[in-house]
Request: fold
Amino acid sequence: MTKTPVIQLENVSKIYGRGRAAIHANKNINLTINKNEFVVIIGPSGSGKSTLLNLIGSLDYPSKGTIKLDGQNIAQLDESELAQIRGQKIGFVFQSFHLIQSMTALENVMLPLTFQNMSAGEKQKRAINILTKVGLKSRMTHLPGELSGGENQRVAIARALANNPEVIIADEPTGNLDQSTGKKIMDLLLNIYKKEGKTVIIVTHDRDLVNITKSEKVYKIVDGELV
Amino acid sequence: MLRDYFLVAFNNLRRRKLRSWLTVIGIIIGISAIVSLTLVAQGTENAVNAAFEEFGTDVILVQGGATFSRPTPGEYGLENKDIRFFESFGEVDIVIPYVYDTQEVEYKDEKKYPIVYAIDTELWGEFLGRTNFEVEKGRNLQKGETGAIVIGWKLNQDYFEKKVDLKSRIKVSGKTFKVVGIYERVGNDADDTSIAMAIEDARKVFAPPGKVTGAQMIVKDGVNIEEFVKELEEEYEDYRGDKNFIMSTSTAILEQINNILGIIQYVIVGIASIALLVGAVGIANTMYMSVMERTKEIGIMKSIGATNRAILTIFLIESAFFGIVGGIIGCIVGIIMAIGAKLAIEFFSPGLPFLILIDPKVIGGALLFSAVAGIISGILPARSASKMNPVDALRHE
Reply:
């Protein structure tokens, strides 16, 4: 099977600040993530893994080097184009869920579709479909505050899947959950990788997660560098 | 898509109900002040115009030695020969000379100094037909009648400690007169406390012989009054040998008054606009607070594909909403306030034909004004929201 690269980082550095006070959050990172891979990036806190994740997810521009998303250099895109592409090709899952508290689970899942100009009827149909898939059909009209942590993370995963993106990026997805709930969330992400054929990238500091996923693609990040 | 942005924006407004309403109140105050004051100013203009319509547009007013277009009490600037001069013009139909003075008036040992005016009883009907004065009780002066007076409404009320009524006897400048009639309420104290008498009586008691304060000239039908008054003014100046008089038409006076009312209206609306400006600053303040509080939300929306433009639109909808809702409620409150002012004016001066017309131009302008104020005050906060870096915004707690 030939591998198609989805995300390519070439000599990427991210520097905050200037001169002597400059902090090199990422240094000379070379990384290629192919279609339908399950990638784990592991590193202690402060190692620059969140910065790397933001770069992979095209939330931020690199200071040096090139990032290609589906072969397209993101440096050539303006903010609006980048937002559009981010919405279509990447789904984010965050440690603290990052749901909009005043919106119901269904509305939260529909929101990314709103930014892609989808009609109201189709949006709702698709959002219900995905929420059913993650096992939240009966909790759709609840606000995030009325749902458990595991349920919130399921809503967040459903939201990440809403636009049917190629890549799901998860930043410590189990960090705020107890062990058994965390396991279920990891199973869900593995399912998305296996059954839906998505590329899943997980960033964590938790060694146990690596064992759960049995992923062959594990990168370690220390002091901003991949080792 | 815009519809969805509206839903997102309204969702935010609903979430902060109290603050949203407080912000809207700022705009309501500004717009209602502008609307009510404009409507009242227009009502005043209507009242003045209606009063002049009654007066007629065929009247030339002349006063000798006067300093302002309103008659000056006690200035006897016209003589009999002046009146005859005016009468010599073919364009003039009738000349009504009048005396207008403040005099000592005594009733049951109480002394006051109201305005007394006097006209030839032959011309009484002609004169009254062009004023707000209507007899309510008793009757008017009859032709050639002397020793009798007609009094203003307030004299019949509480002007003197003891009530003056029909058949009461009042001393004007030391001579006793009998009250034969009482006028309806006019609405201003100067007119409502005045006393009317025959010019013959006035001459006997206080007015100098052969002199009057001013005159009303009624021109014949078909005379171009504006041209005629210019000609008359020049000729009269030659005749008199000085410029020590004022001559004007009712339309000229009306124009003058309308000009002044117009200026007053601009000043009032200008002041009311300051209230709206404060309201707009309130919107900007609320929007900035909202942007700060929702920094994380903005980051979330950006991470799931919201463009800068989408964020800008959502925040602008919110600030425009403050302006538009404030504008609509402000217009309603303003109309209610204007009607209240009309009722109050009618209560205190019932004679004034004060009319409030709800001018669609005023309402439309106020709504446009408020919507624009809402959008403009939202631009800066919305821009700062849209320009946020998603990574920083997400990190915000």
Summary: The two ends of chain B are 29 Å apart (CA to CA).
